[in-house]
Amino acid sequence: MVLALAKEIAMRKTESDGKIETIYFGGGTPSVLSNDEINFLILEVYKNYKVVENPEITLEANPDDLSAERILELSKSPINRLSIGIQSFYEEDLKMMNRAHNSAEAKKCLEEATKYFDNISLDLIYGIPGMSNEMWRQNIQTALDFGIPHISSYALTVEPKTALSKLIQTGKIAEPQDEVASNHFMILVEMLQKNGFIHYELSNFGKENYFSKNNSAYWLGKKYIGIGPSAHSYDGIKRGWNIANNSLYLKAIQNDELPIETESLTISDRYNEYIMTGLRTIWGVSLERIKNEFGSEYLTYLLEQSQKFVNDDLLSIENNILKPTPKGKFLTDGIASDLFYLES
């Protein structure tokens, strides 16, 4: 698989017309790669693309993948940022979510990681049934006590046909409640902002100079290339996705074929994506960009549709930028859907 990834990297070098700013090892279990394999793939990127002087190079991993020995090994590689899927520091939560690690492993992992890495992000889940506000505060405080500079936090979602959905269906645990998730979200925002974090995207908080450059590029509509099975790409006009099946992916690459499907986005598609991502960030939606990139018709439509949310103090317009108010932040995704332009 590693050789196929390297070959795809080379096959797609003509798709980049600028410098690579970030390299992200994510999805699946990238932490199973050895240092030699990581170094090999990064070298292939450098061989085939122009790369900025100090790119952000992130490895996504779970605590059970990150032993003390593995963290030490990674510190000797070009990886300079870790994104760790902690989810919770409570044993009962981890069991309910069917996580492979336990609470002790989560804490030990961060204890070791902070010895060697300055730039660390962790994930926390809120809105978990049975989690009191005080328990949620303690979850956040535990992350703060480790000095973590970036936190991504998401509401618990229940996917069909999962162990969690079966527990809910059989009444063994309660169904997640929107009110609980909303309260947890407000606590999260308050605690992290008091501790010097900037709420720069709906689900992401970072201290100054610790925003995720990789994810920020996506939210700002920059181009990106995804390598490997299921990877997604975007060139500003088209969106593409690689085939998910490993065997079919490998066969295509061996035959010098790119295993990718693409779709061209209409102007309305691109407008809707900008609204969806822009409203989630501190950069908001630029009314000037709407007019210049999409036209006066879209600007007029946006202003008309957003007025009711401005009146309800859920959106504000300042310096030609449309943003959610503190009251509207938790409702951002729902608000954005009401601003989408639907083609007739």
Automatic annotation (TrEMBL):
NCBIfam families: hemN_rel. This is Heme chaperone HemW. PROSITE patterns: RADICAL_SAM. Pfam families: HemN_C, Radical_SAM. GO terms for molecular function: 4 iron, 4 sulfur cluster binding; coproporphyrinogen oxidase activity; metal ion binding. SUPFAM superfamilies: Radical SAM enzymes. Probably acts as a heme chaperone, transferring heme to an unknown acceptor. Binds one molecule of heme per monomer, possibly covalently. Binds 1 [4Fe-4S] cluster. The cluster is coordinated with 3 cysteines and an exchangeable S-adenosyl-L-methionine. One of its GO terms (cellular component) is cytoplasm. It comes from Flavobacterium phragmitis. Keywords: 4Fe-4S, Chaperone, Cytoplasm, Heme, Iron, Iron-sulfur, Metal-binding, S-adenosyl-L-methionine. It is found in: Cytoplasm. Gene3D superfamilies: 3.30.750.200. Belongs to the anaerobic coproporphyrinogen-III oxidase family. HemW subfamily. The keyword Nucleotide-binding does not apply.
